[in-house]
dTDP-4-dehydrorhamnose 3,5-epimerase (Sphingobium jiangsuense), 190 residues
Amino acid sequence: MPNPIKLIKTRRFSDPRGWFRENFVENRWADQLEADLHFVQDNQSYSARPGTLRGIHFQLPPHAQAKLVWCLRGSIYDVAVDLRSGSPTYGHYVSAELSAENGMQQFIPVGFGHGFVTLEPDTEVAYKVSDYYAPECEAGLRWDCPELGIDWPLPSSGPLLSSKDEALPGLAGFSSPFPYDGNPLVAIGD
Ligand SMILES: Cc1cn([C@H]2C[C@H](O)[C@@H](COP(=O)(O)OP(=O)(O)O[C@H]3O[C@H](C)C(=O)[C@H](O)[C@H]3O)O2)c(=O)[nH]c1=O
């Protein structure tokens, strides 16, 4: 069964001036992503300090979002959490190191929470989303939720969080609106 989370390797074309990279080509990426996927919004975030942790975030229906995530600068430990109701891997996560250097992208479908922690200063993350920003549908789970048990690589000073993320609830009280499609999460490895 196909892993719902996809890792996509982009190609860097180097020459004496520097390099060129295609970050998204709809008809070519379609082979690796979901068939009827259509991205409608591009986002970018900048984090000055390593150890900046954003997440675990997701939007609820009717504005749930699939995401394609990569690094424009620096690097992140990127996490996707299975939140699909009835999934045998509910509450399990996968992680991947995405960096400007490795050009890796992680695809996170609807039904998964997303978060990352930055591994370098001045890290910039770009991501495409498949539905528009809908603050009324924003939801999240706390980064250190014991039920999730995410092994974040953190600096000794701990993570830098927004006040919003500090106040997020744990998985215990969450009632998932996301259906399970029969594809369990397969750990890609870190
Ligand atoms: C997501 C979003 C935010 N905003 C505004 C709302 C706030 O005034 C400001 C910062 O938003 P927030 O603190 O939610 O940003 P992050 O903590 O980086 O959250 C994002 O990063 C995690 C890892 C995700 O996967 C989500 O896509 C997204 O929630 O941008 C917008 O105007 N449009 C948007 O699409």
Remarks:
- Residues 82 and 125 are 22 Å apart (CA to CA).
- The helical segments are 26-29, 163-166.
- The chain has a mean pLDDT of 95.
